[in-house]
Amino acid sequence: MMKPIQQRCLMMLSLIMMAFTFSPVHAQSSDITKTLAQPAPFDLNTASVEQLTQLPGIGPRKAQSIVDYRTEMGGFIEVTQLTEVKGIGEKMLKKVQHRLFVDEQ
User: Fold this and answer.
1) What is the pLDDT of residues 61-98, one digit of tens each?
2) CA angle 15, 17, 20 (to 5 degrees)
């Protein structure tokens, strides 16, 4: 059987561990880690086929279709135009649009 002082110490240690586990600081560091782990967005008008295949759901064929469309149309004015490429709909756009931008030069 534990002595009362040992019980109190064990209880305090447990409370401290729980406080650190559920602290906002812990949540913030987790958010920062997620943000840092995400690749930087890239310009839809200059992205290579290789870069485009890094997007979720975009394989080599779709990536080439994007590049072909870009060449034929003279570039994208906005990311939402991506839905004009055959095989890319609203659902796909939602998956990838946070990773893309169009430079307004």
Assistant:
1) 999 999 999 999 999 999 999 999 999 999 999 999 99
2) 110
- Residue corresponding to tokens 């485009």: 52
**42: its two tokens:** 């890239």
Predicted confidence (pLDDT) per residue in 12-50, tens digit? 767 677 666 655 555 555 555 555 556 789 999 999 999
pTM, entire model: 0.64
Cβ neighbours for 8, distance < 8 A, ≥ 6 positions apart: none
- Taking the CB of residue 26, how many other CB atoms lie within 10 A of it? 12
Task: State the burial class of residue 49 (Cβ atoms within 10 Å of its Cβ: 0-12, 13-18, 19+).
Answer: middle
Beta pairing class for 42-43 and 100-101: parallel
